[in-house]
Amino acid sequence: MIANPLEQVALLLLGSALLLGLLRLLLGPTAPDRIVTADTLSVIVTAGLAVVALLLLNPVYLDVALIYGLLSFVGVVALARAIEGGRR
Length: 88
Fold this sequence. Notes:
It is found in: Cell membrane. With about 90 residues, the protein is mainly alpha-helical.
């Protein structure tokens, strides 16, 4: 598994975005800020799984990324409804 420079840059950027997102998740002043950050982190992890699938030449990771993205979307919607109070 030797990554070309573009893949290395992608992993570096995703890793730094993940660290900054975790910092924002811990320091977010309000609950909605934390929920938006959690949604952003889930997108970053999904992109990371896609890059790993490319690196390992294994399409199974794309399936995992798809399921993870779907579950994280449902989770964020549930959290947003809980904060909103369940109103429609």
